[in-house]
Amino acid sequence: MAVGDARTDRPAGTAGYGEAAEQLAAQYEAVTFAEVHREALHLFPTRPADVLDIGAGSGRDAAALAALGHRVVAAEPTAELRRIGEHLHAAAGVRWVDDALPALPRLGAAGARFDVVLLTAVWMHLRPDERPPAMDALTRLLAPAGRLFLSLRHGPVPPGRRMYDAPAEETLALARAWGLRPVLHTERPDLHGRSDVHWTVLVLSDVNQR
Question: For residue 175, is it within any domain?
Answer without folding.
Answer: yes
